[in-house]
Amino acid sequence: MSCPSQPSGTRQTIGLDRVRRIVTAIAMAFAVVAVMAATPSFAQRRPPVPPPTPSATSTNDDQSAGNSTLDLGSGFLERLGNQASGGFNRAFRSNPGGGGASESTDDPRYRTWFEGYGVSVRTDAQGDFVGDKRKTVGGVAGFGARIAPGVNLGFSVDQSHTDIDVPLALQSATLDLTQVGFNGSVDKGPWTWAFAVVHGFGKVHSSRDTGFGLATAGYRAAVDGALTEISYYWTKDQMRVVPKGALEYVHATGAAFQEAGGLDPLDVGSSAISRARVMIGAEIGRYFIFDQKILDLSAYGKFVDNFYQNLGSVQVSLGTQNIVVPGIGESRYGMDAGATASLSLTNTARLYVNYDGKFRNELTSHQGTVGFEYRF
């Protein structure tokens, strides 16, 4: 027995209803998925992009500028100390005629000197510091007087310009530094006690290649230092040996600054570094008299112990991110060495050239000086 067939209109209506139900179900499924994706508890979020963080090498040029300020203060101190206790100057204070003159001829009482110098320094990599090269040119003008028998005082001004290059960090800087210094000495028989103090102030201009332009800054720098030295003058005929011992302290500061330009300019905090050292050594010299002129040749060497170094640190900020960058310094032990040639044209005028070298594990420095001194 066969079942009665449904009308064709009824079958079409049932088919449309099924299609509508399927489409509605698919639409509801997509809606549920969309709501779940938009809900934080279900959404698979991308990890947040961290804010940029300053690099530990981003202030290498400023670290180098701080050490340049410290080293220039130290170099000026030691030159002033040598002016006060150097063997040739010591000989002229008590024997201006060179060789046979008596102390009664101890004239003139005043002297002035002018110097031009150049310094080349290389610092090796230390931690996050990638190393630098520095070149300095400068000039000194000074005046001194004998205010009492065996008592001498002097005043001088040093003006210098330093170019700093940190090639591996794509950074550079310049330092223009003015220093004023006082020195003095007291002679007692073969013994001499000398001292020197300096104060310096200047301006640093730094430049950092960010890849999207240069980030630049300008800020103040300063240095203060003091040195005391004791020496013993031993002479035989035209030879001399002058053993020396000295104590030196130097303190340098850099002001806080904010970079301008480039990508992600930094805010950099103030810095302060200091160093104390003991130096023990000797000078050996000999003079020659010819054609009423005196040619004096000498050399020195000394052992250096940097028994105290406060390398300091600086805070570097980029937005809300901060890091602390440690300072850089010298090795504790090292050697200094140098030589001088001096030609006295008359009893009152002389020309001289100096070489001074500093040798540390992380630093090498060479300085050449040309000077003229006139006594009246």
Key features of this structure:
4-stranded antiparallel β-sheet; 56% strand; single chain; 17% helix; alpha+beta; 376 residues; 12-stranded antiparallel barrel
What is the gist of this entry?
The protein is an alpha+beta fold and 376 residues long.
Description:
This protein is an alpha+beta fold. The chain contains three helices and 17 strands. The chain has helices spanning 8-38, 60-85, 87-94, and strands at residues 110-123, 132-148, 151-166, 171-188, 191-209, 214-232, 234-236, 239-254, 257-258, 267-268, 271-290, 293-310, 313-318, 321-326, 333-344, 349-359, 363-375. Strand 13 (313-318) and strand 14 form a beta hairpin. The longest helix has 31 residues, at 8-38.
Instruction: Please provide the count of β strands.
Output: 17
Largest beta-sheet details: 12 strands, antiparallel, barrel
Radius of gyration equals 36 Å
Number of helices: 3
Which structural class best describes the helix and strand composition? Answer: alpha+beta
Q: Overall pLDDT, averaged?
A: 87
User: What would the principal axes of the Cα set say about the shape?
Assistant: elongated
Q: Record the strand order, biggest sheet.
A: 1-2-3-4-5-6-8-11-12-15-16-17
Q: Please trace the helix and strand order, writing H or E for each element.
A: HHHEEEEEEEEEEEEEEEEE
What is the share of helical residues?
10-25%
N-to-C span: 149 Å
